[in-house]
Design brief:
Strand order of the largest sheet: 1-2
CATH superfamily: dinb family like domain
Oligomer: single chain
Shape: globular
Distance between the termini: 27 Å
Largest sheet: 2 strands, antiparallel
Radius of gyration: 16 Å
CATH class: Mainly Alpha
Length: 175
């Protein structure tokens, strides 16, 4: 049986985020966007996930999943938490921030790595205050709050891309 991207059971409902404390709101929106990206992939086979469907772009759904694992690792673990670790996918064969170098044969592994990275990122910032800061590679102080907002906008932008990629793959629309 061919592996397919699993269905996503929503753990975050946006309606419940309207009056929660700030940390819960930021975590909730981030989780909702993480789940949305995976929902855009649900039910697709590896070849469909790795297919560029919006010409002339070579962007793929699998590339977006890989890219977001890289982005989360960079900001939460490497930048904020100061972990001295490499990339998730960005080796010589994996291209720019995980977007290139996708291989349908690695789709199941790549999804597992994404999920593991999300868990590791959540663990890296657990117990830290939103006002805690670090110095960016450009020498600017940034807060954990800033990182959450950045990640939310990054997912929102790429989930828009995922909308088009999925629709062109099989006609599915919606979140």
């Amino acid at each position: 049986m061919t592996w397919k991207a699993p269905q996503v059971e929503r753990t975050t409902q946006l309606g419940g985020l309207g009056v929660v404390p700030e940390r819960g709101m930021l975590e909730g929106w981030l989780n909702w966007h993480r789940e949305t990206l995976l929902a855009k992939c649900a039910g697709l086979e590896p070849g469909e996930l790795a297919r560029a469907t919006v010409e002339p772009s070579n962007l793929t759904l699998l590339g977006l999943v890989r890219h977001m694992a890289e982005v989360e690792r960079w900001w939460f673990r490497r930048s904020f938490a100061g972990e001295e670790i490499g990339g998730v996918f960005t080796g010589s064969a994996d291209g720019d921030e995980g977007l290139a170098g996708v291989d349908p044969a690695d789709a199941e592994r790549d999804f597992a790595r994404f999920r593991a990275e999300v868990r590791a990122c959540d663990a890296a910032v657990a117990g830290h205050g939103l006002d805690e800061t670090f110095v960016s590679t450009r020498g600017k102080p940034l807060s954990l709050r800033w990182v959450y907002v950045l990640l939310i906008q990054e997912y929102a932008r790429h989930n828009g891309h995922a909308d088009f990629l999925r629709e062109r793959t099989d006609g599915a629309t919606g979140d």
